[in-house]
Every structure is written in C-alpha cells, then in structure tokens.
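Bit of a strange request maybe. I'm writing a small parser for structure token strings and I need a real example to test against, not something I typed by hand. Could someone generate the tokens for this chain?
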Amino acid sequence: MVRRTAVALLLLGLAAAGALLPPAAAKPRDTLVIGITQFPSTFHPNIDSMLAKTYVLAMTRRPFTAYDKDWALVCMLCTRLPTIENGLAVPEQTADGKPGIAVTYTIRPDATWGDGTPVTTRDVVFTWKVGRHPKTGVSNTEFYRSLYAIDVKDERTFTLHFDKLTFQYNAINGFQLLPQHLDEARFADPMAYKNRTTFDTDTTNAGLYFGPYRISEVARGSHVVLEPNPTWWGEKPFFRRIVVRVIGNTAALEANLMSGAIDMIAGELGLTIDQALAFEKRNGDRFNIVYKAGLIYEHIDLNLDNPILRDSRVRKALVYALDREAISEKLFAGRQPVAHSSVNPLDWVYADDIPKYPHDPAKAAALLDAAGWTATGKGVRRNTAGDPLTLEIMTTAGNRSRELVQQVLQSQWKRLGIDVRIRNQPARVFFGQTVTQRKFSAMAMFAWISAPEGVPRTILHSDHIPTPENNFAGQNFTGYVNAEMDDLIERIEVELDRKARARLWRRLQVIYADELPAIPLYFRAEPYVLPKWLKGLEPTGHQDISTLWVERWRAE
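Reply from user aminoacidic:
Good idea to test on real output. This should exercise your parser:
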C-alpha cells in the first residue's frame, strides 16, 4: 500500500510538470508503444551516428549484412553471403598492384521500396556516389574511399571492388541504401544535401523504406509512428502500429510505463542499470526485466585542442583522481565493469595486460604538479600565469544516471583542485551539433556501441577528424592524432591471421590506455523492461540492435 501511494505521488508530480503522457489503457494489443530517451537528429541512415535514429530505422530498412544475436554475420538484403570459399568473393590486385578483393552480392528479388519501386543496383550506385563525395557529411568515409569501383551485372546483382583485402571483407553492414528515385535530384548540390534529403524534408514518404514497417507520422522531439509496409517481403509483422515515444527524463520514462502510457522501455535507449535494478525490486512481478551485457563503452571524449587537455599528464591525473570501481559498485551494483580501454572483455581481441589507472589521488596530484598546475590552498589549482584549472563536462540532459555520474566525477575532481563545471544539452542537440561538430570545449560523456571486433577507424584514425572542410564527417571527435595508431588500424584491417591480428589489437589497446584520448568509464549492460505479453524480442549486445528483427515480435 505504501509502495502504491509513493508511485501515485510520483505520477501526480510528473503530470503536473507536463512529463506524463495520457494513459493508454484502452489501446488494443495490436499496438505497441515503446519509450526511448532520445529523438533522432536526422533520419538519414548514413549521416550522423545516433542510436535513436538506428533504433527507429532498423524497423523500416534492412542492411545487406548484419551480425545476429549469436554474433554471426548473416545476409539480410542479399540472397547469399559472399565468401572466398563459395567464390562470390575473389581476391584481386588493384591497378597499382595492391591486394584488393571483388565481392559480389545479389539483392533479394522481392525487395521493393514502400512506394512500389524495386530496390535495384541503381540505388547501390547512387548510394556509393553520395558516400564518395567529400562534402556530403557521410559518416563512414573510409568504406566509400576503399570501395573504388562497382560493376553492375543486372538490376539486382553487383560486384564491389575494394582496394584492400580485409578480414571483414564481406561485412557491409554500414552500406545503407538510399532511394535513387527520390534523393538523386536533392543531391545536385552535395554540400547542401544533408539538409535537403528526403529523409528529413519528407520523412513519411513511403518510398524511403523497404523493411517491415514504414514511418507514417513524425512529431519532432515527441514521437514517431510506424505502420506495416505493404511491400515488405518477409514475415508479416504482428503489430498494426508501433509508436516510439521520446521521454528524455528517465524518471518520467518509468512513470509513463507505470501509468500505461507506454508498454515497454527500450534496452538500447532506456533506463540505466541502477534504475532498472530499483524498478525490478518494486515491479518485477509486473514486467520482464532482461539484462544484456554488450559492446557498449561509456566514456568521456576529451577535446585535445583544449590546451589543458593536450598535456597527457593532465589526462592521466583526471583518471587517477577517479574511483571508478566505487562508482561501478555503488551506482550499478557491480554490473557495469570498469573500462580500461575501448575494447570490451566480451570481445575476443580484448587484452588485459595494458596500462590501468586505479584510484590514486597522490599520483594524480603529482602529475598535476609536474604539469604546472599548483595547489593554491584556496581550492582550485592554477598555473604560473594564474589561470585556474577549470574544465567543462557535457552529456545528454535528462539521463538521471549520467547526471549522477557527472556529479560524482565533479566531486572527486574537486578534491584534487580541478574545477569541473556541468553543462548538458538535449540529446538531439548534443549529438546533432555539439559532439559531431566538436563544439564541446573540454569533455563530452556518451557511449559507443560497436560490432564484434569493430575496428575503431572512424573514432581514432587522424583522417576522420570532423572539420568544416569535410562537412563534419568522421567520428574522431577528440581530434586525436597518432601515426602509430593510424598504422595499427590500417594493419589490423588487412591482417587475416587471427593470432597476428590479436597482437596488433593488444598494441592498439596499450597506446589507447597510455595516451587517453578519452577517459574510459565502464562497459554498460542494457536493461530491457518489457511487458509479460511481449514475445520474440532478443537483445544482441552490439550495434545491430533488436529492432532489426521487429517482425518477430508479437503479443501473447
């Protein structure tokens, strides 16, 4: 009785604040309402890397290839996975005599855009042209650079020619097709294309989608409605309507679940572990709470153009000052282990014998002293010019767990005389502009989610620093430049021997841990809060997320 009263008071307070949506008790079981915490900054599949966009679009499209829940590479839009063994992938020499590979795919014969237009090699070639252009702002620039030619056999079959033979030669998960018949005219001005694409100017156009669902309604910052796509080739989806509601405040997200305004909270973009554990204690009899550990790396990107952070001694001091083990244990019940690099222990290439930074305030203080930041006895350290050691940390506003972690970090840094100030933004601004355009002055806290043995080229290679000149393509938001790291990334990609590749991976992790372009925090687990009647949802634990198999979801 006390528990219910507390919940009722919470709901009343959130309703008064405008955070609670109308209850949905009367809706039929053929409608599914999902709660997530972020709204996409764009709906274009190849511009910006934001999980909220991926979550929605995965219900409306299918990549050529993807990793499934067992982390095996499978065909989705293609008819057969090409391999060297089956002859659909053939090693070859490029024109300049380097080892390359030709990989042949066939589009499913029943793949059709939602407006009835067949999905063809014309879309393949158009997508390639957009990706190859240096001014479009497409994220995965290296893929398109390496893909130097396409041979079109017919309307469905094509061969990709890559200028290097990589160990992931047949994984083209990121080659997300664009509809040539809708977007080619908008590509006339490549620099302006990212602001004129049909995906954002006419998001409900059925011709943008060929998955089990299509987007039928968009309310910016509020919700997206999806309805079955009549041209979908696969298993008929169960739900007549899926509504993805965006509730940026995680406490309000939980309250809306309890009121019945939403049916479930997405694991990929929902409650944090601490919230889910507390929720399970109170309401575990009413919902299924599924915890999935995965390749999700919570960290703080450091802007290495900041003169304070350019000094590696300061970066190391920032980490030594933190008690990350205590944060993991006290806030997340030990379910989110401390990260020592960007590579997760779940990945086979993980190396344990790399530099680590246990909580050591004395060592942190000595490093700051050596870097010229002297304790003044008045709180904040200063350099010889009298400048205070002041930094700003940013993250997504409304994420209670991140905001709590920020406060803990701020407090621990303050003990060492480091003045850290918190400034947060809505996710669509934080990811759509601040991080993507490197507008954060010092520290940006967020998570990367990767594929199994995902090579961090776009994150760590110096060619992928976003700039106005490349229309802010790339994901090296720290501005990290290291010639050995560049070389390692390029060597890892083309090393086919697993043992040799493991050695290269270890060296990459050593450099990352030693130079600290980012502060590793912890590896996240995702809590899925599901109604007991929902079946068929299977978390994957990597970047090819659960909604890629939404047609298997059903109510029982």
